[in-house]
Amino acid sequence: MLLNSAMEMRTSVSLPWREEPRDPYRVWLSEVMLQQTRVAAMLPRYLAFVERFPTLESLAAAPLDEVLALFSGLGYYARARHLHAAAQAAVARGGLPRSSAELSKLPGFGPYTAAAVASLAFGEQVALVDGNVARVLARLLRIPGTAAEVRAQAWEVAPSLLPAGRAGEFNEALMELGATVCKPRAPSCEECPLGPHCQTRDGGDADAFPPPKTAPERPVIVWAAAAVTREDGSVLLRRHPQGELFAGTWGLPFCDAGGGIPRRSARQALEACGIRAPALRSRGEVRQTLTHRELRVALFSGTGHARERDDLRFIAPGKLGSVGLSSLLRKCLRACGIEG
Ligand code: SF4
After folding, report:
1. What percentage of residues in the chain have a pLDDT greater than 90?
2. 143 lines ligand 1 (CB under 6 A)
3. Which atom of ligand 1 is nearest to the CA of 194?
4. Which residues carry out catalysis?
5. What is the total count of domains within the chain?
6. What is the CATH number of the domain that holds 303?
7. Which of 101, 154, 219, 331 is surrounded by the most beta carbons within 10 Å?
Protein backbone atom coordinates (compact mmCIF):
# COMPACT_ATOMS: atom_id res chain seq x y z
CA MET A 1 0.00 0.00 0.00
CA LEU A 2 2.78 2.41 0.98
CA LEU A 3 4.60 1.48 -2.21
CA ASN A 4 1.64 2.18 -4.46
CA SER A 5 0.99 5.49 -2.74
CA ALA A 6 4.60 6.61 -2.97
CA MET A 7 4.88 5.57 -6.62
CA GLU A 8 2.29 8.17 -7.55
CA MET A 9 5.11 10.69 -7.14
CA ARG A 10 7.63 9.00 -9.30
CA THR A 11 7.14 10.22 -12.81
CA SER A 12 5.88 13.70 -12.10
CA VAL A 13 9.09 15.45 -13.16
CA SER A 14 10.96 14.88 -16.43
CA LEU A 15 14.70 15.27 -16.05
CA PRO A 16 17.38 14.24 -18.57
CA TRP A 17 19.15 11.78 -16.27
CA ARG A 18 15.88 9.94 -15.72
CA GLU A 19 15.45 8.96 -19.35
CA GLU A 20 15.17 5.20 -19.82
CA PRO A 21 17.27 3.19 -20.11
CA ARG A 22 19.18 4.86 -17.30
CA ASP A 23 22.79 5.70 -18.02
CA PRO A 24 24.71 4.97 -14.78
CA TYR A 25 27.29 7.68 -15.56
CA ARG A 26 24.59 10.33 -15.97
CA VAL A 27 22.69 9.17 -12.90
CA TRP A 28 25.90 9.46 -10.88
CA LEU A 29 26.77 12.85 -12.37
CA SER A 30 23.30 14.20 -11.55
CA GLU A 31 23.57 13.01 -7.95
CA VAL A 32 26.96 14.69 -7.54
CA MET A 33 25.86 17.96 -9.14
CA LEU A 34 22.67 18.09 -7.08
CA GLN A 35 24.54 17.95 -3.76
CA GLN A 36 24.00 21.33 -2.09
CA THR A 37 22.62 22.70 -5.38
CA ARG A 38 19.05 23.23 -6.57
CA VAL A 39 17.82 21.59 -9.78
CA ALA A 40 17.24 24.96 -11.47
CA ALA A 41 20.85 26.05 -10.87
CA MET A 42 22.30 22.67 -11.64
CA LEU A 43 20.41 21.76 -14.83
CA PRO A 44 22.21 24.08 -17.30
CA ARG A 45 25.57 23.01 -15.82
CA TYR A 46 24.59 19.37 -16.11
CA LEU A 47 23.67 19.81 -19.79
CA ALA A 48 26.95 21.62 -20.51
CA PHE A 49 28.86 18.92 -18.66
CA VAL A 50 27.38 15.98 -20.57
CA GLU A 51 27.85 17.81 -23.84
CA ARG A 52 31.55 18.24 -23.07
CA PHE A 53 31.98 14.85 -21.34
CA PRO A 54 29.29 12.51 -22.70
CA THR A 55 30.81 9.34 -21.28
CA LEU A 56 32.69 8.09 -18.25
CA GLU A 57 35.75 7.57 -20.45
CA SER A 58 35.72 11.13 -21.78
CA LEU A 59 35.57 12.49 -18.21
CA ALA A 60 38.41 10.24 -17.06
CA ALA A 61 40.61 11.43 -19.95
CA ALA A 62 39.97 15.16 -19.35
CA PRO A 63 42.36 17.56 -17.61
CA LEU A 64 41.12 18.40 -14.09
CA ASP A 65 41.08 22.11 -14.98
CA GLU A 66 38.39 21.53 -17.60
CA VAL A 67 36.26 19.61 -15.12
CA LEU A 68 36.64 22.34 -12.51
CA ALA A 69 35.80 24.98 -15.12
CA LEU A 70 32.39 23.35 -15.61
CA PHE A 71 31.80 23.53 -11.86
CA SER A 72 32.86 27.20 -11.64
CA GLY A 73 30.65 29.16 -9.28
CA LEU A 74 28.75 26.07 -8.04
CA GLY A 75 30.92 25.75 -4.92
CA TYR A 76 31.92 22.55 -3.13
CA TYR A 77 34.77 21.95 -5.57
CA ALA A 78 35.76 18.71 -3.85
CA ARG A 79 32.81 17.29 -5.81
CA ALA A 80 34.54 17.97 -9.10
CA ARG A 81 37.89 16.64 -7.93
CA HIS A 82 36.31 13.45 -6.59
CA LEU A 83 34.18 13.05 -9.71
CA HIS A 84 37.28 13.20 -11.88
CA ALA A 85 39.30 10.86 -9.64
CA ALA A 86 36.43 8.37 -9.39
CA ALA A 87 35.95 8.37 -13.18
CA GLN A 88 39.61 7.50 -13.63
CA ALA A 89 39.42 4.76 -10.98
CA ALA A 90 36.24 3.34 -12.53
CA VAL A 91 37.68 3.30 -16.05
CA ALA A 92 40.79 1.54 -14.73
CA ARG A 93 38.57 -1.25 -13.43
CA GLY A 94 36.42 -1.50 -16.55
CA GLY A 95 33.50 0.80 -15.69
CA LEU A 96 31.34 1.85 -12.80
CA PRO A 97 30.81 -1.05 -10.39
CA ARG A 98 27.21 -2.17 -10.07
CA SER A 99 26.91 -2.59 -6.29
CA SER A 100 26.78 0.05 -3.58
CA ALA A 101 29.52 -1.78 -1.67
CA GLU A 102 31.93 -1.54 -4.60
CA LEU A 103 30.88 1.99 -5.54
CA SER A 104 31.67 3.06 -1.97
CA LYS A 105 35.34 2.30 -2.63
CA LEU A 106 35.57 5.05 -5.26
CA PRO A 107 36.55 8.64 -4.31
CA GLY A 108 33.62 10.80 -3.26
CA PHE A 109 31.06 7.98 -2.98
CA GLY A 110 29.41 8.22 0.44
CA PRO A 111 26.58 5.87 1.51
CA TYR A 112 23.92 8.03 -0.13
CA THR A 113 25.58 8.42 -3.54
CA ALA A 114 26.57 4.76 -3.68
CA ALA A 115 23.02 3.66 -2.85
CA ALA A 116 21.50 6.15 -5.29
CA VAL A 117 23.60 4.98 -8.26
CA ALA A 118 23.27 1.30 -7.35
CA SER A 119 19.50 1.40 -6.92
CA LEU A 120 18.51 3.92 -9.63
CA ALA A 121 20.92 2.80 -12.34
CA PHE A 122 21.70 -0.84 -11.58
CA GLY A 123 18.55 -1.97 -9.75
CA GLU A 124 20.28 -3.03 -6.54
CA GLN A 125 17.86 -3.62 -3.69
CA VAL A 126 19.31 -0.98 -1.38
CA ALA A 127 17.74 1.88 0.57
CA LEU A 128 18.98 5.46 0.72
CA VAL A 129 18.42 8.49 2.89
CA ASP A 130 19.03 12.10 1.89
CA GLY A 131 17.58 15.18 3.56
CA ASN A 132 14.28 14.80 1.72
CA VAL A 133 13.85 11.12 2.56
CA ALA A 134 14.79 11.70 6.21
CA ARG A 135 12.12 14.39 6.47
CA VAL A 136 9.42 12.24 4.85
CA LEU A 137 10.19 9.26 7.08
CA ALA A 138 10.40 11.44 10.21
CA ARG A 139 6.88 12.71 9.56
CA LEU A 140 5.42 9.50 8.21
CA LEU A 141 6.65 7.46 11.19
CA ARG A 142 6.78 10.27 13.75
CA ILE A 143 10.48 9.74 14.47
CA PRO A 144 11.60 11.92 17.42
CA GLY A 145 15.04 13.41 18.06
CA THR A 146 17.44 15.91 16.58
CA ALA A 147 17.95 16.16 12.83
CA ALA A 148 21.07 13.98 13.12
CA GLU A 149 19.24 11.38 15.22
CA VAL A 150 16.34 11.33 12.79
CA ARG A 151 18.68 10.78 9.86
CA ALA A 152 20.41 7.89 11.64
CA GLN A 153 17.04 6.37 12.49
CA ALA A 154 15.85 6.81 8.91
CA TRP A 155 18.85 4.80 7.66
CA GLU A 156 17.84 2.06 10.10
CA VAL A 157 14.22 1.89 9.08
CA ALA A 158 14.40 2.59 5.32
CA PRO A 159 15.50 -0.92 4.23
CA SER A 160 12.41 -2.46 5.83
CA LEU A 161 10.14 -0.28 3.65
CA LEU A 162 11.67 -1.26 0.29
CA PRO A 163 9.29 -3.12 -2.01
CA ALA A 164 10.75 -6.30 -3.50
CA GLY A 165 12.66 -5.62 -6.70
CA ARG A 166 11.66 -1.96 -6.95
CA ALA A 167 14.10 -0.15 -4.70
CA GLY A 168 15.11 2.37 -7.36
CA GLU A 169 11.54 3.43 -8.07
CA PHE A 170 10.73 3.64 -4.39
CA ASN A 171 13.85 5.66 -3.52
CA GLU A 172 13.17 8.09 -6.32
CA ALA A 173 9.53 8.43 -5.31
CA LEU A 174 10.40 9.25 -1.69
CA MET A 175 13.01 11.82 -2.75
CA GLU A 176 10.50 13.38 -5.12
CA LEU A 177 7.83 13.49 -2.43
CA GLY A 178 10.21 15.26 -0.04
CA ALA A 179 11.28 17.78 -2.67
CA THR A 180 7.83 18.68 -3.95
CA VAL A 181 5.13 17.85 -1.36
CA CYS A 182 6.57 17.10 2.07
CA LYS A 183 8.60 20.31 2.03
CA PRO A 184 10.55 21.57 5.04
CA ARG A 185 7.91 24.21 5.80
CA ALA A 186 4.18 23.95 5.19
CA PRO A 187 4.00 20.45 3.68
CA SER A 188 1.15 20.00 1.19
CA CYS A 189 -0.53 17.20 3.14
CA GLU A 190 -3.79 17.53 1.23
CA GLU A 191 -1.96 16.51 -1.99
CA CYS A 192 0.15 13.81 -0.39
CA PRO A 193 -0.41 10.21 -1.48
CA LEU A 194 1.03 9.04 1.86
CA GLY A 195 -1.48 11.07 3.87
CA PRO A 196 -3.58 8.12 5.05
CA HIS A 197 -0.47 6.42 6.45
CA CYS A 198 1.14 9.50 7.97
CA GLN A 199 1.47 9.73 11.75
CA THR A 200 1.93 13.50 11.88
CA ARG A 201 -0.55 14.72 9.25
CA ASP A 202 -3.50 15.07 11.59
CA GLY A 203 -1.53 16.39 14.56
CA GLY A 204 -0.78 19.72 12.90
CA ASP A 205 2.86 19.49 13.98
CA ALA A 206 4.44 17.89 10.89
CA ASP A 207 6.74 20.91 10.55
CA ALA A 208 8.42 19.92 13.82
CA PHE A 209 9.69 16.63 12.34
CA PRO A 210 12.64 16.77 12.19
CA PRO A 211 13.31 19.86 14.34
CA PRO A 212 15.02 22.70 12.48
CA LYS A 213 18.79 22.73 12.70
CA THR A 214 20.26 25.62 14.64
CA ALA A 215 22.18 27.99 12.39
CA PRO A 216 25.89 27.16 12.56
CA GLU A 217 28.28 29.61 14.17
CA ARG A 218 30.54 30.81 11.38
CA PRO A 219 33.99 31.94 12.40
CA VAL A 220 35.24 34.94 10.42
CA ILE A 221 38.38 34.48 8.34
CA VAL A 222 40.16 37.55 6.98
CA TRP A 223 42.35 37.41 3.89
CA ALA A 224 44.28 40.08 2.06
CA ALA A 225 44.45 39.43 -1.68
CA ALA A 226 45.82 41.27 -4.69
CA ALA A 227 44.82 41.30 -8.35
CA VAL A 228 48.00 41.97 -10.32
CA THR A 229 47.68 42.57 -14.03
CA ARG A 230 50.24 42.76 -16.86
CA GLU A 231 50.28 45.25 -19.70
CA ASP A 232 48.25 42.82 -21.86
CA GLY A 233 45.43 42.84 -19.27
CA SER A 234 45.96 39.28 -18.06
CA VAL A 235 45.65 38.74 -14.32
CA LEU A 236 47.92 36.72 -12.05
CA LEU A 237 46.14 33.72 -10.55
CA ARG A 238 47.38 31.04 -8.21
CA ARG A 239 45.88 27.58 -7.96
CA HIS A 240 44.60 26.83 -4.45
CA PRO A 241 46.51 23.72 -3.30
CA GLN A 242 45.06 20.67 -1.57
CA GLY A 243 44.04 21.46 1.99
CA GLU A 244 43.24 25.12 1.23
CA LEU A 245 39.75 26.54 0.74
CA PHE A 246 38.66 26.24 -2.92
CA ALA A 247 41.34 23.58 -3.53
CA GLY A 248 41.97 22.98 -7.23
CA THR A 249 40.40 26.22 -8.42
CA TRP A 250 42.32 29.40 -9.31
CA GLY A 251 42.29 32.47 -7.08
CA LEU A 252 44.16 35.67 -6.34
CA PRO A 253 47.40 35.44 -4.37
CA PHE A 254 46.38 35.98 -0.73
CA CYS A 255 47.61 35.85 2.86
CA ASP A 256 45.71 35.43 6.10
CA ALA A 257 45.32 38.92 7.50
CA GLY A 258 43.38 38.42 10.72
CA GLY A 259 44.64 41.02 13.19
CA GLY A 260 47.37 42.24 10.81
CA ILE A 261 47.70 45.11 8.37
CA PRO A 262 45.93 44.02 5.16
CA ARG A 263 48.14 45.96 2.74
CA ARG A 264 51.24 44.39 4.28
CA SER A 265 49.66 40.93 4.08
CA ALA A 266 48.77 41.47 0.41
CA ARG A 267 52.39 42.43 -0.27
CA GLN A 268 53.54 39.25 1.48
CA ALA A 269 51.23 37.22 -0.74
CA LEU A 270 52.77 38.81 -3.83
CA GLU A 271 56.32 38.41 -2.57
CA ALA A 272 55.61 34.66 -2.33
CA CYS A 273 54.86 34.89 -6.07
CA GLY A 274 58.12 36.72 -6.79
CA ILE A 275 56.66 40.24 -7.00
CA ARG A 276 58.64 42.72 -4.90
CA ALA A 277 57.24 45.92 -3.37
CA PRO A 278 54.33 46.47 -5.76
CA ALA A 279 52.28 49.66 -5.61
CA LEU A 280 48.84 48.55 -4.46
CA ARG A 281 45.52 50.32 -4.68
CA SER A 282 42.81 49.40 -2.18
CA ARG A 283 39.64 47.96 -3.75
CA GLY A 284 37.61 47.62 -0.56
CA GLU A 285 36.34 44.41 1.00
CA VAL A 286 34.65 41.42 -0.60
CA ARG A 287 32.63 39.00 1.53
CA GLN A 288 31.63 35.41 0.95
CA THR A 289 29.56 33.19 3.23
CA LEU A 290 30.71 29.58 3.14
CA THR A 291 29.05 26.61 4.81
CA HIS A 292 31.15 26.79 7.94
CA ARG A 293 32.90 30.14 7.66
CA GLU A 294 32.47 33.79 6.83
CA LEU A 295 35.27 34.99 4.58
CA ARG A 296 36.28 38.66 4.32
CA VAL A 297 38.82 39.64 1.74
CA ALA A 298 40.66 42.96 1.89
CA LEU A 299 41.26 43.50 -1.79
CA PHE A 300 44.04 45.36 -3.60
CA SER A 301 45.10 45.74 -7.21
CA GLY A 302 48.29 46.66 -8.99
CA THR A 303 50.47 45.86 -11.98
CA GLY A 304 53.53 43.66 -12.14
CA HIS A 305 55.33 40.67 -13.57
CA ALA A 306 56.01 37.23 -12.12
CA ARG A 307 57.58 34.05 -13.39
CA GLU A 308 54.79 31.59 -14.20
CA ARG A 309 54.73 28.11 -12.65
CA ASP A 310 52.32 25.18 -12.71
CA ASP A 311 50.34 26.81 -9.92
CA LEU A 312 50.86 30.44 -10.97
CA ARG A 313 49.66 31.85 -14.27
CA PHE A 314 48.71 35.08 -15.95
CA ILE A 315 45.34 34.43 -17.53
CA ALA A 316 43.66 36.76 -20.03
CA PRO A 317 40.12 37.81 -19.04
CA GLY A 318 38.78 36.11 -22.16
CA LYS A 319 40.33 32.79 -21.09
CA LEU A 320 38.97 32.76 -17.53
CA GLY A 321 36.14 30.45 -18.58
CA SER A 322 38.60 27.66 -19.34
CA VAL A 323 39.73 27.11 -15.75
CA GLY A 324 37.94 26.49 -12.46
CA LEU A 325 37.01 29.73 -10.73
CA SER A 326 35.20 30.21 -7.46
CA SER A 327 32.38 32.72 -7.16
CA LEU A 328 34.60 34.52 -4.63
CA LEU A 329 37.23 35.09 -7.32
CA ARG A 330 34.61 36.39 -9.74
CA LYS A 331 33.43 38.88 -7.11
CA CYS A 332 37.02 39.99 -6.48
CA LEU A 333 37.74 40.42 -10.19
CA ARG A 334 34.55 42.44 -10.67
CA ALA A 335 35.52 44.66 -7.73
CA CYS A 336 38.81 45.34 -9.52
CA GLY A 337 37.11 46.08 -12.82
CA ILE A 338 38.26 42.83 -14.45
CA GLU A 339 35.48 41.02 -16.31
CA GLY A 340 35.91 37.53 -17.78
S1 SF4 B 1 0.94 13.70 4.90
FE2 SF4 B 1 2.04 15.64 5.06
S3 SF4 B 1 3.57 15.35 6.65
FE4 SF4 B 1 2.82 13.32 6.07
S5 SF4 B 1 4.32 12.59 4.53
FE6 SF4 B 1 2.63 13.59 3.42
S7 SF4 B 1 3.24 15.77 3.16
FE8 SF4 B 1 4.57 14.83 4.71
Report:
1. 86
2. no
3. 6
4. 31
5. 2
6. 3.90.79.10
7. 154
